[in-house]
C-alpha cells in the first residue's frame, strides 16, 4: 500500500476485547469524535489514554472487537492517534468498520509481541518487524476489496471516487 | 452440490450462484439505523454530497437506545435523525415505539429470503423469519444509503440440530446460552448458524428470535431458522410484500454440525463478564442480586413477560431488589396490559419503563450501583455494559430472573412453576 511504513510501541491486550471495552456505550452518543479517544479502553485500562502516544500500536489476541457494531470503537482508536491494530483475529463487524474508516486492522501471530515492544509495520510487504525482539512476523493477506478500500483511505473516499463497488 | 439457505439467499441477491468463501456485492432489501449509530451514518452519507438516499422505502430509523432522551446532547442526535428521515421520506419510529429489532419483525418489514442490514450487531435477530440479516457499521450503512448494495464474503454455515422438547422451566434463552457456552465468543466467527430439529419446529416465533438474536455472541455473522408454516403465518398477517422463502438443499455443505438434546438442558446462567461464561443454574443459586432487568431485544416480548408474571403472580419482589420491566415495543406493552400481565408485575413490585433498549446498553435508566449484582434477560454482560464498570451482570431467562427477584438471590425457576 504505497510503501506505507508504521513504526511505534506496542500496547498489548488479551483475547476477546469487546467493543464495550474499547469505548463504553455511555460515551458513544456524540458526534464530537475526538471526545471518544479520552475514554478509549477506560473500563479495562483506565490510564490508557494518558500513557499512549500518537503512532503507537494496539496489539491483541484473538477475536478483537467482538460485540457491538458501534463504529465509535475503531473511531476512538483512530482519533487517539493509534496507527494500527494487530491481532490474531478480528470480530467481523469491527474488522470491516476499521478498514471502512481507514484504520489498518492487521491479522498476524501476536504471540511474539509483548507490551512495550518497538514494532515496524510494513503494509506493502505484509510484514511486522519486532525491533525489540529482532523477529519478523508475516501478516495474513487482506481480501482485495478491503485492501482497495484501505488504499483509498476508507469506504467514503472509495465510493466518492467510484460511485459504486468495483470488481476486483 | 446444493446450497445452504444463506448461499441461496445471497445468490438471489447477486444475480449469479455464489458459494461460501466467495466475495460478492449484494442488493439490500432493508436497512435499519438507530439513535446510537444512525447519526454517524448520516454524517458519512453527507460526505457523498448526494441529495437522496437510494430508496427511502427500504430504510427504517428507530429511536430506542436512549429514548426518551436523557439530555440535550442526545436530543440533538434524535433531532438529526428525525429531520433526515422527514426530508428523505424514511420510515421513522420515534421514542416509545420500541426496540428496533422487535419493530422490524412486528411490523412485517423483514420477510423470508430478504437480506436485511442494520447498524446494530443484534440485527441478526431477523434470521427468525428466514431472512439473512446482520449488523454493519455506520460507514457501511452510508454506502448502502448511497448504492443500495454491500460487499460481503459468503459465510459458511454451522448447523445446530436441537432434538426433543424442553423440560418445564427451560426456555430458548437457556438453549442459546448453552450453545454459546459450547461455541465460546469466537466459535462461530464469520459463520452463520442454522437452527433446526424438532425443538425448533415446536418453538414460537419469539423463541426463534431469542436464538437468532444471540448468534452474534458466538461471533456469528447471523443466525437463521428455515421458514416453515409458522413463519409464513407470522409474515402473512403483517405484510403484503411478495417474498421468496429459501431452505437449504439436502446436499448442502455445512462446515460443522452441533447436536443438542433440549430435554437434557437445565436453566442456564452466564456469569460476569462474558456471555460465554455459562453455568447451570444449580451453580449460581444463592448469589445475591440487587437489580433484576426483564426486557431487551432478546427477551422483552409478550411471552417473556407472561412467563415472568406467572412466577411473580401473588408474590412480592424481595425488599432488597429493584425489578425493572421494559416491554420490547408499544404493541407488547399494550398486549401485556390487556392480558393483565402488567398489573401482576406492578402488584409484585416491578417498575415498568418505556419500551426501548432500557438499561441494557448503559446509556440511561437503571444504571446499577458499584459492587451491585444484576441478573438480566439481556444478551451481553460485559464489564461496564449497563453503565457502571464496578457492577456485575448475570444473564438468564425471564423465568430465572423472576424467581431471582422474589428471593433476592439467583434462584432456580422450576420450584415456582405451577
Description:
Chain A: This is 3-isopropylmalate dehydratase small subunit. Chain A: Its EC number is 4.2.1.33. Chain A: It is an enzyme of class 4 (lyase). Chain A: InterPro entries: Aconitase/3IPM_dehydase_swvl, AconitaseA/IPMdHydase_ssu_swvl, IPMI_Swivel, LeuD, LeuD_type2/HacB/DmdB. The complex is a heterodimer of chains A (168) and B (418). Chain A is of the alpha/beta class and 168 residues long. In chain A, 28% of the residues lie in helices and 19% in strands. Chain A has 7 helices and 7 strands. Chain A has helices at residues 19-22, 33-37, 48-51, 72-80, 92-100, 144-151, 155-162, and strands spanning 5-12, 57-60, 84-87, 105-107, 118-122, 127-130, 135-138. Chain A has a 7-stranded mixed β-sheet with strand order 4-3-2-1-5-6-7. In chain A, strand 5 and strand 6 (127-130) form a beta hairpin. The longest helix of chain A has 9 residues, at 72-80. Chain A is globular, with a radius of gyration of 15 Å. Chain B has 14 helices and 18 strands. Chain B has helices spanning 5-14, 38-46, 72-88, 100-106, 138-147, 172-183, 198-202, 205-213, 229-236, 296-299, 302-312, 330-338, 341-348, 398-407; strands spanning 23-27, 30-34, 59-62, 91-93, 115-118, 132-135, 149-153, 157-163, 192-196, 222-224, 256-261, 268-270, 278-280, 291-295, 322-326, 351-352, 373-376, 392-395. In chain B, the strands form 5 sheets. Chain B has a 5-stranded parallel β-sheet with strand order 4-3-2-5-6, with helices on both faces. Chain B has a 5-stranded parallel β-sheet with strand order 16-15-14-17-18.
Amino acid at each position: 500500500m504505497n510503501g506505507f511504513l508504521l513504526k511505534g510501541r506496542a500496547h498489548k491486550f488479551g483475547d476477546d476485547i469487546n467493543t464495550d471495552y474499547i469505548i463504553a456505550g455511555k460515551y458513544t452518543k456524540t458526534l464530537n469524535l475526538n471526545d471518544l479517544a479520552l475514554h478509549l479502553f477506560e473500563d479495562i485500562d483506565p490510564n490508557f489514554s494518558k500513557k499512549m502516544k500518537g503512532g503507537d500500536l494496539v496489539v491483541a489476541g484473538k477475536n478483537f472487537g467482538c460485540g457491538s457494531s458501534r463504529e465509535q470503537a475503531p473511531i476512538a482508536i483512530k482519533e487517539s492517534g493509534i496507527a494500527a491494530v494487530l491481532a490474531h483475529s478480528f470480530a467481523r463487524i469491527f474488522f470491516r468498520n476499521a478498514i471502512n474508516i481507514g484504520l489498518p486492522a492487521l491479522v498476524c501471530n501476536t504471540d511474539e509481541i509483548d507490551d512495550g515492544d518497538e514494532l515496524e509495520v510494513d503494509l506493502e510487504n505484509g510484514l511486522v518487524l519486532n525491533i525489540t525482539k529482532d523477529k519478523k512476523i508475516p501478516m495474513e493477506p487482506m481480501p482485495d476489496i478491503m485492501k482497495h478500500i484501505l488504499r483509498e483511505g476508507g469506504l467514503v473516499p472509495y465510493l466518492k471516487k467510484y460511485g459504486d463497488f468495483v470488481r476486483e | 452440490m446444493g446450497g445452504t439457505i444463506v448461499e441461496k439467499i445471497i445468490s438471489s441477491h447477486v444475480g449469479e450462484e455464489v458459494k461460501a468463501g466467495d466475495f460478492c456485492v449484494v442488493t439490500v432489501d432493508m436497512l435499519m439505523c438507530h439513535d446510537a449509530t444512525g447519526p454517524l451514518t448520516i454524517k458519512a452519507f453527507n460526505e457523498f454530497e448526494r441529495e437522496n438516499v437510494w430508496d427511502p422505502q427500504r430504510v427504517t430509523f428507530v429511536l430506542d437506545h436512549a429514548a426518551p432522551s436523557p439530555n440535550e446532547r442526545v436530543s440533538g442526535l434524535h433531532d438529526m435523525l428525525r429531520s433526515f428521515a422527514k426530508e428523505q421520506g424514511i420510515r421513522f419510529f420515534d421514542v416509545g415505539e420500541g426496540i428496533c429489532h422487535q419493530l422490524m419483525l412486528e411490523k412485517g418489514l423483514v420477510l423470508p429470503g430478504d437480506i436485511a442490514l442494520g447498524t446494530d450487531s443484534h440485527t441478526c435477530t431477523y434470521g427468525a423469519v428466514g431472512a439473512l440479516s446482520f449488523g454493519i457499521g455506520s460507514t457501511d450503512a452510508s454506502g448502502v444509503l448511497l448504492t443500495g448494495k454491500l460487499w460481503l464474503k459468503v459465510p459458511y454455515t454451522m448447523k445446530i440440530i436441537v432434538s426433543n422438547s424442553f423440560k418445564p422451566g427451560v426456555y430458548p434463552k437457556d438453549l442459546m446460552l448453552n450453545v454459546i457456552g459450547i461455541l465460546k465468543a469466537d466459535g462461530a466467527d464469520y459463520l452463520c448458524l442454522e437452527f433446526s430439529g424438532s425443538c425448533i419446529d415446536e418453538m414460537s416465533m419469539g423463541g426463534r428470535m431469542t436464538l437468532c438474536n444471540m448468534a452474534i455472541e458466538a461471533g456469528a455473522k447471523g443466525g437463521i431458522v428455515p421458514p416453515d408454516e409458522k413463519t409464513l403465518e407470522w409474515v402473512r398477517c403483517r405484510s403484503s410484500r411478495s417474498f421468496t422463502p429459501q431452505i437449504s438443499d439436502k446436499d448442502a455443505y455445512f462446515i460443522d454440525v452441533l447436536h443438542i438434546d433440549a430435554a437434557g438442558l437445565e436453566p442456564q446462567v452466564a456469569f460476569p463478564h462474558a456471555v460465554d461464561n455459562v453455568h447451570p443454574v444449580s451453580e449460581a443459586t444463592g448469589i445475591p442480586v440487587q437489580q433484576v432487568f426483564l426486557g431487551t431485544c432478546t427477551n422483552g416480548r409478550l411471552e417473556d413477560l407472561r412467563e415472568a408474571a406467572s412466577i411473580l403472580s401473588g408474590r412480592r419482589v424481595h425488599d432488597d431488589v429493584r425489578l425493572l420491566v421494559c416491554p420490547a415495543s408499544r404493541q407488547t406493552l399494550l398486549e401485556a396490559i390487556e392480558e393483565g400481565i402488567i398489573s401482576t408485575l406492578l402488584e409484585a413490585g416491578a417498575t415498568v419503563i418505556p419500551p426501548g433498549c432500557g438499561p441494557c446498553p448503559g446509556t440511561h435508566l437503571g444504571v446499577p450501583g458499584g459492587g451491585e449484582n444484576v441478573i438480566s434477560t439481556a444478551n451481553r454482560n460485559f464489564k461496564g455494559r449497563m453503565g457502571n464498570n464496578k457492577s456485575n451482570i448475570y444473564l438468564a431467562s425471564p423465568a430465572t430472573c423472576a424467581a431471582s427477584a422474589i428471593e433476592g438471590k439467583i434462584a432456580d425457576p422450576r420450584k415456582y412453576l405451577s
